[in-house]
Amino acid sequence: MNQQQAPIQLTHPESEQRIEVGADQLDRYVVNGWRAAEVGAPAGNASFEAWAEFARSKGFTEDQIVGQSRDDLRAALS
Fold it and tell me: Would the pTM of this model clear 0.85, i.e. be above it?
């Protein structure tokens, strides 16, 4: 019986674009800088609060979040 594998989510290193690829295509994307998408990570253009909540879920303290921009948090969590 042929079982189909679930697609793998990847994120582009510069644009934060997300795609899904099959395991047979993974190597060609990884060598071009794509990385595994963080499960549960907000979209790159999500609100500051969405990124702050994600940061908290990853162990960031309020002191580490206060004063940061959405892009600062996104970079720290990528």
Answer: no
